[in-house]
Amino acid sequence: MKKLPVLAGFLCVCLCAHAMSNWSADSSTGIRFEKDLSWKQILAKAKSEQKHIFIDCYASWCGPCKKMDREVYPLERVGDVFNKEFIAVKVQMDTSRNDDATVKAFYADAHYLGARYKVNAYPTLIFLNPDGSIVDMIVGGVDGSDLIKVATSAINPENDYSAKLKEYEQGKRDLKEMAFLATRSYLLLGDSALEHRISEDYLHSLGKANWLTFDNIRFLKGFTHSTRDIGFEYFLKNADTIDQVMKDPIYAEATIQYILYMEIIAPEIEKSNALNQVPNWNKLHEMLAKKYGGYYADRTITGVRSDWAGRKGYWPEHSKYLVLYVEKYGAKLDTGGFAKALYFNNCAWDIFQHSIDTGELKTALLWSQFALLIDPEAGWMDTHANILYKLKSTGLALKWEQIAATLANGDKAIALNLKKMKSSEPTWPSN
Fold it and tell me: To bridge 355 with a disulfide, which of 190, 297, 347, 360 should be the other Cys (CB 3.0-4.6 Å)?
């Protein structure tokens, strides 16, 4: 069975679907949010009282926003921190027919703040200095403990982004602070040019001889987005050494492949799709090989051809290139862990669903066996059983599927597969 990770919960950012809501935090014990003040008046009050500013940018229809109103802002311990250190304001970023006079009066200021801080998801929580310069930002809901932690960090002068940026612009070159500024510039200001400038300045100041550490390689990857970035060439020339430092056999290779896909392959595919044509794979391969070497040309094109064919429903081509890719460039067999088991299981399940080629199915069976060796999980057993069943090893398939059904304890998909196997029905889709 193909298992796909699902991320859900309170940290989910609310992006769509209108549904009216009113703020209902208990300000008698929690955060006391300012009302009936313009943004200019809030700035003046913060400066006068020498307090930081906390802005909750929310939408009337946002579920995580409502949850914070109910469960976080009314907490006494949260109120104790924020009421002492912050001027707090709630800013409704959308408009609705039920908006009261206070919300309507703040429409223009809300528009300004949304544009100023590039707010496009809710809630967005913004922390400012008393002078109105930005210190920190959170996108998405958090619980009371995490909110207090961020607020405490925001009022710590050591974490003052705006002050550090001013010092940097005046010529101060502290490596630790430069790394901090580079990682925060885009998040806080949405300024990719500033992010790029500081990151390259940091790397040049650090010196290439010092790049080969775990933290510095991770930093370098975070600021390597195109073939024009200094990190790309470094990853290209030092892939094996980088993989060893990161203890990941494809760390550099996967980074390079992703950049080549996004910058070169994806635009060509988009053009071909617009013309209802098949991309010229040979031309793309030749171009990549000439500039970046045959290894990356083959690796990138093989993976992309499998993905492209799958999206088009060309299943024989999809399966052919998926097998080629996994066998040549897939996760290394000498590494373990759940992620590797998931990878091989998912690829095996893909071949099971879409291929009728015996050789491909036998290869997928080996992948499923490897997944089981790493992690003998019921879902992996279901995959193994289904491939055996499609290969007409019905007796062995039933044994594996019965074990999977027992371990899964009521999993409907596995139970249905077992029932179909017993009735000699196909368990795979008709392509």
Answer: 360
**Strands lying side by side in the sheet with 134-139:** 33-34, 86-92, 52-58, 124-128, 134-139
Query: What digits encode the pLDDT tens for the residues 213-270?
Result: 998 898 888 888 899 988 999 999 999 999 999 988 888 999 999 999 999 999 999 9
DSSP 90: E
Q: What is the CATH number of domain 338-422?
A: 1.25.40.10
CB-CB contact of 130 with 150 (8 Å): no
Mean pLDDT of 350-376: 95
State which amino acid sits at residue 88.
A
Q: Which residues, 6 or more positions from 184, have their beta carbon under 8 angstroms from its beta carbon? A: 161
27-75 residue pLDDT tens: 468 999 998 899 999 999 999 999 999 999 999 999 999 999 999 999 9
Quickly state the pLDDT bin for 11 (edges 50, 70, 90): very low
The contacts of residue 76 (CB under 8 Å, 6+ apart) are 29, 30
Listed in sequence order, the residues at least 6 apart from 358 whose beta carbon sits closer than 8 Å to its beta carbon are 391
User: 33-159 with 338-422: one CATH topology?
Assistant: no
In angstroms, the CA 110 to CA 95 distance is: 10
Measured distance CA(89)–CA(92) in Å, rounded: 10
Q: What is the arithmetic mean of pLDDT over 5-19?
A: 36
What is the amino acid identity at position 329? Y
**Which contiguous run of DSSP H or E holds residue 230?**
helix 230-237
User: 170-179, 208-217, 258-267, 376-385 — which is least confidently predicted?
Assistant: 170-179
Quick: pLDDT tens for 186-215. Answer: 667 666 777 778 888 888 888 888 899 998
Q: How far apart are CA 417 and CA 398, in angstroms?
A: 10
Residue 161 neighbours by CB under 8 Å, 6+ apart: 133, 134, 135, 136, 180, 181, 184, 188
The answer to whether the CB of 391 falls within 8 A of the CB of 352 is: no
Q: Which amino acid is at 233?
A: E
Residue ranges covered by each domain of the chain = 33-159, 160-206, 213-330, 338-422
Give the span between the Cα atoms of 240 and 249, in whole angstroms: 8
Give the pLDDT confidence score for residue 191 in this predicted structure.
64
Whole-angstrom CA distances from 289 to 238, 256, 260, 292, 361 are 18, 13, 11, 5, 31
Classify 33-159 by CATH class: alpha beta
